[in-house]
Amino acid sequence: MFVGLQGTGKTTSVAKLANYLKSKYPTKKILLVACDIYRPAAIDQLKTLGESLNIEVLEKGTKVNPVDLAKEAYHKSHYEGYDIVIYDTAGRLHTNKELMDELHQIKKIVKPAETIMTIDALSGQDIINVAQTFHDAIELSSFFITKLDGNAKGGAAISISYLMKLPIKLAGTGEKVGDIEVFNPHRIVNRILGLGDIETLTEKIEEAIDLDKQKKDAKKFIDGNVDFDEAEKKLKLFETLISSMTKEERKNPKLLKEPSRKQRVIKGSGKTAQDFNKLMNQFEQAKTLMKQFKNMPNNPLNQLK
């Protein structure tokens, strides 16, 4: 049984889970139930997804009572031998008592093995209170984090799981029905912190503690006075190229416009001329961007001057 706020990707997540279970257990008989009668598009979407996956969808349009539909699906699953039934409920605000009561009634009837709340990876920390309200009303069992692609990091989801002592079991990583994976906490922690290992974590913690150093580095960067000592920390992708430069070249990147220096760095790093040019272009773009940012009105970093 899927629950959550509107717009968190419940219907797509239902189809993703159905597709995942079908591929993992090809002999299992699966039924999807369209209990979101308040949004006709949700019913059509679930029907379309069900047809594409060759999975049956039970729907009665928008005139039926969701509780009655859930009851019908429950009996149908028993009489017709369905192994897995997934209920797609309507998105609702946690403050809407009538709709929360509806969820409670549905759960009481169908007795789901899992009550999964979808959490948008872009959600802020306020989602914690929302999830707690859902949990108090219907007792959640786990979370499905959605839209964990692009720039989304999912920090709020980690907070919810920790504070509510409930697991995040699955994650949606794209728009296609196959874009689903079993949740891996190590991946999301690395994604949030931008880390690859414990050693890097230690370095970042030490750097965060040194507030004076942070302010000096920030001021240097926004002033556009960036050299390759800073760039090496930021552009890990080009670490080999940068390590092939001399100290003088790192401090004065303009020297690298000389063809002989450029060729020496490329040869010494084992990279291509394209890699070198990409590094130089991104470095110059970063300097330009930081200078523009410095001149923006009400720039909070100007206090670092």
Strand order of the largest sheet: 1-5-6-7-8
What letter string, H or E per element, gives the SSE order? EHEHEHEHEHEHEEHHHHHHHH
CATH superfamily membership of the largest domain, which one?
A: P-loop containing nucleotide triphosphate hydrolases
User: Runs with pLDDT <50, length 5+?
Assistant: 194-211, 295-305
CATH class of the largest domain: Alpha Beta
Largest sheet: 5 strands, mixed
Give the % helix.
40-55%
Strand proportion, as a percent range, falls in 5-15%
Helix vs. strand class = alpha/beta
Total count of strands: 8
Keywords: GTP-binding, Nucleotide-binding
Organism: Biomphalaria glabrata (Bloodfluke planorb)
Pfam family, one: SRP54
Protein name: SRP54-type proteins GTP-binding domain-containing protein
Question: How would you describe this structure to a colleague?
Answer:
This protein has 305 residues and is an alpha/beta fold. The protein folds into 2 domains: 2-183, P-loop containing nucleotide triphosphate hydrolases (Rossmann fold); 224-298, Signal recognition particle, SRP54 subunit, M-domain (434 Repressor (Amino-terminal Domain)). It is 53% helix and 11% strand. The chain is built from 14 helices and 8 strands. A 5-stranded mixed beta sheet has the order 1-5-6-7-8, sandwiched between helices. Strands 3-2-4 form a 3-stranded parallel beta sheet, sandwiched between helices. Helix 5 links the parallel strand 5 (116-120) and strand 6 (142-146). Helix 3 packs parallel to helix 4 (97-110). The longest helix is centred in the C-terminal third of the chain and has 22 residues, at 273-294. This is SRP54-type proteins GTP-binding domain-containing protein. Keywords: GTP-binding, Nucleotide-binding. It holds the Pfam family SRP54. GO terms for molecular function: 7S RNA binding; GTP binding; GTPase activity. One of its GO terms (biological process) is SRP-dependent cotranslational protein targeting to membrane.
